[in-house]
Structures are given as structure tokens and as C-alpha cells.
């Protein structure tokens, strides 16, 4: 908070401050809200989410700051090589889960400044839960509902900056 107050007094804006909601191994949005907190990111960081999926359902997830290059490197691990070797298998069925185990999917998204506009931060409470779409309607990408290949391959930071 002191950094934010200092940034405001020196520049009159929130430029240069990037924040992400941080929670580890959350099993629900409520769990993430209860055990998570906002964290200030390093320069050139994005927010990330890593979801553990089994039987086409998110079982637990981790969110927080990650350097942009590291986040994209992890995201690029989602779909590499033949489908059976993909780490991210969002559409897998029960029988595939039993054979291939847990699916691990990662995504990057834009950081926010909670004190400036909390609606642009990862949402753990309220009607619209998940990663903010950054539109005028307050819509989000619901991590528990968006378990499609499209979601896990999209360039969300770019989509958010176009809004």
C-alpha cells in the first residue's frame, strides 16, 4: 500500500504498478478469496493461473504474478506434441483421466491495480468470477466453466488490452 501511495503522490497515477490476486492450490473461488491476497508484481510481470483438471473439471488452481516470459513459456507447455502427450487436456473424459492422469493447464492475463479498479483483478467473490474480460460489462472468463482448448490457447493479455 505504501508503494501505491508513493506512486500516487509522485506521479498522480498508478503507472508502473502491477498487481495480481495470489492464492495457492485453491479448490474454489471461496477458498481462493479466503486464503488469497493481492500481491504486487515485478516489472514485466503478468498474472497467471495454473489449473489442475480431472474429468473435464477444475479440481484446484493457483494464481499470482509471473514474469511475462516465464508465464508464456509455461503456457506453451499446454499443447506440445501429440494430443496424448499434452499437459493440458481440458476436454478429457473420465476414462482418459483414469489413463492419462491429471491435466495441467496454464494461462496468462493482464495485471491490475486493485485500488484503482478492482473489477480488473481476478474475481473471487460476486456474480462474475474468474479472469476479468476488461469490458464495460464486468464479464469474466470463469476458470471452472472455461475448460476448452480455445481458452487455454488464447492470448488473454492481448484480448484484454484491446478492450
Automatic annotation (TrEMBL):
This is Oidioi.mRNA.OKI2018_I69.chr1.g239.t1.cds. It comes from the Eukaryota. It comes from Oikopleura dioica (Tunicate).
